[in-house]
Amino acid sequence: MDKKNLIDLNGKLVSSAEPVIYADNRSFRYGDGLFETIRLIKGKLHLADIHYKRLMAGCDILKMEVNPEWTQDYFTQRISELVEEKGITANARVRMNFFRTAGGFYEPLSNQAEYLIEAEPMSTEGYPM
Fold first, then answer.
1. Per DSSP, what are the bridge partners of residue 14?
2. Is-contact 78 8, C-beta < 8 A?
3. Rounded to 5 degrees, what are φ and ψ at 97?
4. Tens digits of per-residue pLDDT, 27-79?
5. Which of the ends of the chain has fewer CB neighbours closer than 10 A, N or C?
6. Tell me: the pLDDT tens digits for 93-110?
7. Are 91 and 122 within 8 A, CB to CB?
8. Which among 87, 100, 88, 97 has a CA at the least distance from the CA of 117?
């Protein structure tokens, strides 16, 4: 597996070259999800606590049931593992997507949340304009 293509899907590192989101995914089909983009600067997640709180507040507003094990420390560890496996040592753009499990039309079949984390290296430390 090409490590450049790794993503974290619900706690498992998988290749982004393989299908992970299907047509019945509620985020894809109905926009039923949310995301945050976090900067990794000099190997440290920038404003991680604010991003985590915003993600959890968004899940609450959307009535998504979040696994109680998904703490800020859990996601910090998942992101750290992903960037390490990808060989990213300094700066990156990390995108976290939360979405409801597949199924249902107007009403979802489940309110259980899932997540996907991507990390792409960046050459800059700051926030480019």
1. 7
2. yes
3. -110, 135
4. 888 888 999 999 999 999 999 999 999 999 999 999 999 999 999 999 999 99
5. C
6. 999 999 998 777 778 888
7. yes
8. 97
Distance CA 67, CA 4 (A): 28
Measured CA to CA, the distance from residue 9 to residue 114 in angstroms comes to 8
pTM to 2 decimal places: 0.91
DSSP assignment of 27-81, as one string? HHHH--EEEEEEEEETTEETTHHHHHHHHHHHHHHTTPBPPTT--HHHHHHHHHH
- Rounded to an integer, what distance in angstroms lies between the CA atom of residue 64 and that of residue 102? 12
> Which helix (H) or strand (E) covers residue 83, if one does?
helix 72-85
Non-local (6+) Cβ contacts of 5 within 8 A are 15, 16, 17
